[in-house]
């Protein structure tokens, strides 16, 4: 992949021309982005960068190979346009007043108007003339061709009339205009309006790209690393995998890594969109550009440079903004034939008006013929058409990046429109994926507090997730002082003679008591047999969707600890939002039916929409079965075992808290850990597509209505120029409304 910066493009026709020229090179495929003034070019072996640059330059544009850099900047800024606009405005006002207001007339005012308009139609309008000339050399035309011909024709025709009759404006009054000979104000006003439109477009396009530039500027510039026992401050780009970073409270984490020491809360809102800081400790993964809010952390770098999450986000956003949806290709195809057709219509308009609007020999039809032809040229400029898709896509994907939503490509926008079913992987998507103690049941003389405390003490020596959950719950109980035996500072008592078996359980001595915890088979293997009543209690717990762990003390069953995979706080609301979007949510899990039913009921998914006991390879089959039944399927997941199903689905949505494999296989990625972001991602995609469609509708409608009106002589060229510029600004302004997406929801939710 080669990235090119391209100068000189002004409309969709330019984009189409560059893509076609590059596409003529064998094996080369190019996607050109007008707002970013760039191209992503897929290049086979044997094609050099110089060939790509020469091909674009030969087409009349200026190309340079973009060097690896964190921020893609547009080749042009509004500064140059502003200078031309200011000069044009300063000179156009007197030209308009002199030409159109009798009170401002004076002897030979026509010559003064010609002199004042000359810098406007030459230097100020030069961007239009240059682009038209470049394309004319290659027997091509763009919207600039229409502008250039219209402005030049209005001015040159007026000058010719003035030289033909130098005294036509000798006397004050409207005599010159009555004869229909002068159009200096038309040439000047049209140029000024179009420059104003271009200037506002350039500013708006810069604003549309601000989200991406802001995202890329989030990264830390420097980092403190621990080397040879000493702290050193180095530039962030010099970090290497394996470096140990020292991150103090208030500092940014310079790169992706794993916490090896310390505990803190990390504010990841700039990257994930989540407003609540996340608690981290040893073995917690952290992301570059997030902020350490409290304790001192030691972080071991796992990914640096272009491999970091932030860099990958930027790359995905940039690629999405450069790609093209089918709706955009429709606009390109229309633009390719639009300009030549308009030129033919303008010529036909001129000839027909000249023939039928009066006596050609007396010049009776010349004025209306000329006015109508110029109005056609000006009103037809497809500026809005060229901006409709890329600016909408640029703004939508940029806003998504701010919210922690990555849209891989414009095709995704089309896919979200047709999706009617969404499969939700349970663990890590609907639930946290981490077990937590739900309840403790004690038997005989034992108390619940004691059962949890003794089990926590022996489980604390194990690394198993179930053991960690029990130990954590027991530690919280101890810290709260809610226990029956004396202890030291809220710490769990030590265990001696610890022994464990994978998939079975643990045993050890706590104080003077032998404690055994684990599955039924583990207890039986240690000579402990639960009673029938106890077995029924354990079966009831598992039937309710819990993971039940036996606890035995000194050879007798003391109780049962029930654990559940906790449901994420926003999952139920997210499911309701999906239903409101017209989606049918289904739950997919490898857990047993009881667990699946309990989770589904908690989030509002009916029992018939639950797929339980599904193996990883079975997830793909579920997607295929639904698709075979006529459903358009979206799949949301976060694990390696979800990757194949994400790829098979019509729309794959990966949770950013999940694995790189899942993220790579997905079409949409939400960088946070909240299921509500999945609903928000679909809403944003659909809103972006709707905005693009609205833009295209008004662009097409504007041209479809404007051209006939102009051809019938009902539209003054000055009004046509103002309307054309206004339409472009309207399209961009409509796209920029996406910058406010999600803001009201956040305020309400707060």
Jot down its keywords.
5 domains, single chain, Calcium-transporting ATPase, cytoplasmic transduction domain A, seven-stranded mixed beta sheet, 750 residues, Alpha-Beta Plaits, alpha+beta, elongated, six-stranded antiparallel beta sheet
General description of the model:
The chain is 51% helix and 18% strand. It has 750 residues and is α+β, with helices and mostly antiparallel strands. The chain folds into five domains: 2-65, Alpha-Beta Plaits (2-Layer Sandwich), CATH 3.30.70; 78-208; 222-308, Distorted Sandwich (Calcium-transporting ATPase, cytoplasmic transduction domain A); 405-430 and 568-679, HAD superfamily/HAD-like (Rossmann fold); 433-566, Calcium-transporting ATPase, cytoplasmic domain N, CATH 3.40.1110.10. A hairpin with a 2-residue loop joins strand 20 (547-553) and strand 21 (556-567). The two termini are 43 Å apart. The relative contact order is 0.10. Residues 69-76, 174-180, 482-489 and 745-750 have low confidence and may be disordered.
Q: What is this structure, in a nutshell?
A:
The chain has 750 residues and is an alpha+beta fold. The protein is built from 28 helices and 26 strands.
Write the layout of secondary structure elements.
Blueprint: E1 2-7, H1 12-23, E2 29-33, E3 38-42, H2 49-58, E4 62-65, H3 78-100, H4 109-124, H5 126-137, H6 143-164, H7 175-178, H8 184-208, H9 210-216, E5 222-227, E6 230-235, E7 244-247, E8 256-261, E9 264-267, H10 269-272, E10 278-280, E11 285-286, E12 291-292, E13 297-303, H11 309-322, H12 326-356, H13 366-379, H14 383-402, E14 405-407, H15 411-418, E15 421-425, H16 426-430, E16 431-442, H17 448-459, H18 465-479, E17 495-501, E18 505-510, E19 513-518, H19 520-525, H20 532-543, E20 547-553, E21 556-567, H21 571-580, E22 584-588, H22 593-603, E23 610-611, H23 616-628, E24 633-637, H24 643-648, E25 651-655, H25 660-665, E26 668-670, H26 676-711, H27 717-736, H28 743-749
Parallel strand pairs: 15-22, 15-24, 22-23, 24-25, 25-26
Antiparallel strand pairs: 1-3, 1-4, 2-3, 5-6, 7-13, 8-11, 8-13, 9-10, 9-12, 14-26, 16-21, 17-18, 18-19, 19-20, 20-21
Helix pairs in contact: 1-12, 3-4, 3-8, 4-6, 4-8, 5-6, 6-8, 6-13, 8-27, 9-14, 11-14, 12-13, 12-14, 12-26, 13-26, 13-27, 14-26, 14-27, 15-26, 17-18, 21-26, 26-27
